[in-house]
Amino acid sequence: MRKSKLWLGFLLLLLAAGLLTCWAGSRTVPVLGSRLGDYDGELNPGEFYTVVDEERRVIDRLSREVAPGDEFFAPDGRHYRVERVKGKVAEARLLGRDRDILAWEAYFEQVAVPAAVLGPDRTVAIYHTHSDESYVPTDGAASIPYRGGILKVGARFSRKLEREGVKVNHDVTPHDPHDAYAYVRSRKTATRLLQSRPLALFDVHRDGVPDPDFYRAYIRGSSVGQIRIVVGRQNPKMSANLDFAKRLMSYANRVHPGLVKGIYLGRGNYNQDLSPTALLLECGTHTLTRPEAERGVMLLAEAVPVVLGLQGSRPDLPEGERPLTERSPGVWRAVGWLALAAVVGVGGFLLLSTGSWQGAREKLRQFWSRELGLRKKKG
């Protein structure tokens, strides 16, 4: 009888331990998921937070949760930190100008960046955690599960990089549904892509701010979707990811002023603990047209090889790299004045040497007749 009670107590103890383990396991899954990057923070398209400074001036708008401690880096180097959030308005304090961004701007302006010797097999990897994201004016909806317009934006990014001489591994595996665990599912894709040792890992998205003009810029006479770079501040490689983001923004805006809106350093991981050069790119917003987003990301692709050391650069960008037809009107104005001065000089010389306009015309006619005659003889 005593042994039966002991065995019964032992079984009850095992059962209690098992139940406790299951309960604890169910409680720790979200924590583990957050550590791995399942925290999304994204809002539905059309919902957004507005970030203002101490003077209540708008710094940024973005369709994701903003929390105290989040940081913003503007293209001109202004560095803000969110102090408090009231409703959908986040109040940020200016911390000053970021020295790294200012240093990179000066570096790219003054120094010719050499290409590094990295080997021919190094690639750039692209994937999409939110494979449903789309562009309403072109795709007809903000979300198209498993085949969103964002996949085509990624394809344009990939093809442009390849034209720039970069090997690309573009993975279009869908990770639907669009929920907080999309990053857990896309982590498998990102881990698989890392097997090829890519120089950079880009997760391509779009934002959900309702005003299309907030993401629209005009570069080289075309409307393009601006790009925001997002870095998760809850990952051990945050500093390295942020440095890469600063370099990319500085050079991209050097070549194409106004292309990158800024860098958002927010809660979450976004699987960026996997690589020191992992970035999340938000290419325009859902109310822009997809071609605008594609043009924006293609311009960014021109900057990626230089920042990664696959191509060299010249400090005279952007003017020095453009064909003459794309240079400023001042160049053509100078050429025009030189041509006019040459015509006036020749005409004045002929007029003074012959004494009349008729004599000048006759002299010019004889010159051309003699030149053409000589050319015919040589031919």
What does the model show?
α2 crosses α6 and α8 packs across α9. Among the domains are: about 70-75 and about 95-320, Aminopeptidase, CATH 3.40.630.40; about 335-360. The relative contact order is 0.13. The protein is built from 9 helices and 13 strands. It is an alpha/beta fold and about 375 residues long. The chain is globular, with a radius of gyration of 30 Å.
What labels would you give this structure?
about 375 residues, alpha/beta, Aminopeptidase, two-stranded antiparallel ribbon, 13 strands, about 40% helix, globular, disordered C terminus, Spore_II_P, transmembrane, Stage II sporulation protein P, membrane, transmembrane helix
List the helices and strands and how they pair.
Blueprint lengths: L1 H35 L12 E4 L5 E5 L8 E3 L4 E9 L2 E9 L1 H12 L12 E5 L8 H4 L10 H14 L3 E4 L11 H12 L6 E8 L8 E4 L2 E4 L1 E6 L5 H18 L4 E7 L11 E8 L4 H18 L21 H26 L2 H22 L1
Keywords: Membrane, Transmembrane, Transmembrane helix
Organism: Ammonifex thiophilus
InterPro entries: Spore_II_P
